[in-house]
Amino acid sequence: MRLWLITLTLSSIIVAISPAARAQExxxxxxxxxxxxxxxxxxxxxxxxxxxxxxxxxxxxxxxVDVSAVQSDATNIMDYCITHPNENLMDAVxxxxxxxx
Length: 101
Known about the structure:
The chain has 101 residues and is mainly alpha-helical. It has a single domain (27-100), classed as 10k-s Protein, Hypothetical Protein A, Chain A (Orthogonal Bundle), CATH 1.10.890.10.
């Protein structure tokens, strides 16, 4: 009887936790400020940087991934954001990529 009760309790806990573990976090990148990006307040900065690189390269129909360029771009965007903490991150990235053309 005791084993059955423990099994039932553990099963209930697993069922209660499962939806939370599978919850998907969504981020509206258009609302991220440079300060939030640098502080990692909205998500992993590296993941956001990779997404931004893909987004902006996609708008230019560029399908080539230059890993060293992505790393350099990330560093340059972080440097820019340090001096412009209240700026929208996507505006900062747009400014950066406009300079690269």
